[in-house]
Amino acid sequence: MGSGSADFRPLALSMGEPAGVGVELALALWAARRREPVPAFVALGDPAVFADRARLIGLDVPLAETEPEGAPALFGDRFPVLPLGEPCRAEPGRPDPRDAAAVVEAIRRGVEFVHGGRCCALTTLPIAKAPLLEAGFAHPGHTEYLGALAEELWGQPARAVMLLWAEEIAVVPVTVHVPLKDACAALTTDDIVETGRVVARDLRRRFRIEHPRLAVAGLNPHAGEDGKLGSEDAEIVAPAVERLKAEGIVATGPHPADTMFHAAARKRYDAALAMYHDQALIPVKTLAFDRAVNVTLGLPFVRTSPDHGTAFDIAGTGAGNPDSLRAALGLAAQLAREPLPA
Ligand SMILES: NC(=O)C1=CN([C@@H]2O[C@H](COP(=O)(O)OP(=O)(O)OC[C@H]3O[C@@H](n4cnc5c(N)ncnc54)[C@H](O)[C@@H]3O)[C@@H](O)[C@H]2O)C=CC1
Ligand SMILES: NCC(=O)COP(=O)(O)O
C-alpha cells in the first residue's frame, strides 16, 4: 500500500495521547488504505489502545505486533504496532497522567528508530501537554523535546523550529509554547535571525525552494505604527530583517500581521515568520485546518504531525477527520525520500 513494499523503511508513528483522537485517525487511515493509499508505518505504543479503539468505533482492524523491519510487508493486511511501555489507563476523552511515561517513550523510540536507520521518518500523533507537564515532562511540546533528542542522539546542536505547512500557506512561530506576556518579553533579534536561517535553509534543502522568501511579521498592531504603538518592531524585529538580508536571505518586514495572510499577500512569500504562537497558527488553522501539516525544521531527521490536537470532545466517536494526518504521513514519506543536498 503506498510505499508498503518490503523494500521501504516504514514511518515511525508515535501513539500520542491515548485518550485523544489520534489513535482512531491512524486506524481509519489504515482501514481505508486500499481506497486511498498511505505510506507504511509502524505504530509505537500500547497495542490495547489501538485494539480497544478500533472496537469502539466499529472498525475491523487486525493488529500485528512487529519490529519496524516487519511493518512494510505486513502493512497490506495488518495494522503494525510495536508495543512500548506499560499498558495505558486513559479512556477516550479522559487522559490519565499515569500514561505520560508511555506517551514520551513512544516519541523517544520513534526518534531512536530514525537515528538507527530502522524507520525513515517520524510522524507523531497529538499529545496533550497538560497531563505530560503534570507528570513532570520537561518540555512544553514535541518541538522542544525533539530538539533535545536530536542533540542527545546526533551529538550536535539543533534549533527545532515549528513550521505549519499547507499548499496555500506556510507559517513559523518564532516563540512557540510560551505564555503570550512572556513571548513578548522574551522576543529577541537573535531568535528571529536564527529561526529565519533555519527556515531559509530547510525550505531550500527539504522543500526544494531555491530562494525562499520570508515575510517577517511585526509584533504590535500595524507593526508599531512608527513607534506610536510599541517600540519592539523598530528595535527588535526590523534589525533581524536587516541581518537576514545581509546574509543573502530574501526577507521582508516587519509587516503588520493583520494584513499578511490574505490571498494576495500570501503570494509574496514562501513562509511567514510570526512572533508568537497564535499569530502563526490562527491563519493556517483558519485556512487549512483539515490539510495543514506541522513539520519540525532544524532537525537532522524528518518529523511531521497533523496540525490539530487531541480533540478530546470527539475522541472515541469515530467522527474525526483523518485528512491532516494523511497529509502528515504523506509529507513525511516524501521529505524522507529526498536526499538532502549539501
Ligand atoms: N501536535 C500536537 O501534539 C498538538 C497537540 N495539541 C494539544 O491538544 C490538546 C487539545 O487542544 P485544542 O486546542 O482543544 O485543539 P484540538 O485541535 O484538539 O481541537 C480543537 C477543535 O477542533 C476539533 N478537531 C481537532 N481535530 C479534529 C479532527 N481531526 N477532525 C475533526 N475535528 C477535529 C476538536 O473536536 C475541537 O472542537 C491540547 O492539550 C494541546 O496542547 C494541540 C495541537 C497540536
Ligand atoms: N499548536 C501546535 C502544537 O502545539 C504542536 O506542538 P508540538 O507538540 O508539535 O511541538
Automatic annotation (TrEMBL):
GO molecular function, one term: 4-hydroxythreonine-4-phosphate dehydrogenase activity
Cofactor(s) named in the record: Zn(2+); Mg(2+); Co(2+)
Annotated residues for binding of substrate: H142, T143, K285, N294, R303
Catalytic activity: 4-(phosphooxy)-L-threonine + NAD(+) = 3-amino-2-oxopropyl phosphate + CO2 + NADH
Claim: Transport is one of the keywords in the record: no
Binding-site list for a divalent metal cation: H177, H222, H277
Further remarks about this protein from its record: The active site is located at the dimer interface.
PANTHER family named in the record: 4-HYDROXYTHREONINE-4-PHOSPHATE DEHYDROGENASE, D-THREONATE 4-PHOSPHATE DEHYDROGENASE
Protein name: 4-hydroxythreonine-4-phosphate dehydrogenase
Species assigned in the record: Chelatococcus sambhunathii
